[in-house]
Amino acid sequence: MYLQKRNRILRKSAAIRSLVAETVLTPNDFIAPLFIQEGHNEKTPIPSMPGYFRNSLDITVNEVKELYNLGIKSVLLFVKALDETKDNEGKEAWNPNGLMQRSIKAIKESVPEMFVMTDVALDPYSIYGHDGIVKDGEIVNDETVDALIKMSVSHAVAGADMVAPSDMMDGRIGAIREALEESGFTKTGIMSYSAKYASCFYGPFRDALDSAPGFGDKKTYQMNYANRIEAINETLQDVEEGADIVMVKPAMAYLDIIREVKNAVTVPVSAYHVSGEYAMIKAAAERGWLDENKAIIESLTSIKRAGADLIATYFAKQAVLLLNQ
Length: 325
Ligand code: PBG
Hints:
- The chain is of the alpha/beta class.
- It has helices at residues 14-19, 57-70, 99-110, 141-158, 172-182, 203-209, 229-241, 255-264, 275-286, 292-306, 316-323; strands spanning 30-37, 43-45, 53-56, 74-79, 115-120, 133-135, 138-140, 162-165, 189-196, 245-249, 269-273, 310-313.
- The chain is built from 11 helices and 12 strands.
- The longest helix is centred in the middle third of the chain and has 18 residues, at 141-158.
- Mg(2+) binds at residue 234.
């Protein structure tokens, strides 16, 4: 054959393949989510997330040091609230001495360079396991936003670099920005979960924090996975309201949304590679059906290729160890 163009030339060796690679993962791409619990020297395995743990604060602080030394610059904190602190309003969420507030302080004290982000939503604190306040069987928007404001400001007071509202209430980004401004937190940012879908892939996370909804589901606030244009509208609105970083969640089943959001906005885009996506790879690898390390790097590379500037993933540490090999 005489061919004008032979595409395999650029795939001939490892050297040329890496020279022309369009997408390269680095430790700067990752946000490491951390589950924190009360106690001392407590490391609790999460059955549906093999290899992942819910740790007491002392262990968490050591983990954060290790992550920072590996090159990971950001953590996203989640706490497991004690049952006796839960109510309908989620008041424990803005307790100045709550586990979240103590965790932010302890982490910023021991690793000040680590960029600390915090989950903002009422579900870990709600007796109903919902992200908002429940009235007559419904999740009420505006009262919930008032609670989220208090929660966000209390995280800022404790020293959080960025709050990450994951609740999907309307108007919360603008309201939180305004509250941070009014309280003088002009350097505290907002990473908005802008396009967060009502997804079955959050199952293992809800096991980790014991935060599954006690009744119904989250479909009246999280998005319908059938929708695409809605993701753009939600995201543009959050940018307008002051979000510094926007997010698409989950990631692997939503690569199309990540790309569209990336094309639509000029702020950094993050993607959340969620608990169920972690569990799927772990489960298949445990059975010997997938090469775990290859599946991790391929998945994360696809999320970045789709347009994510940042990836929140339970594989952050494992991926960096693999990249460093
Ligand atoms: C809470 C929250 C959830 C996740 C992040 N923040 C669960 C939910 O919305 O039910 C899911 C993360 C994961 O599955 O890894 N609002």
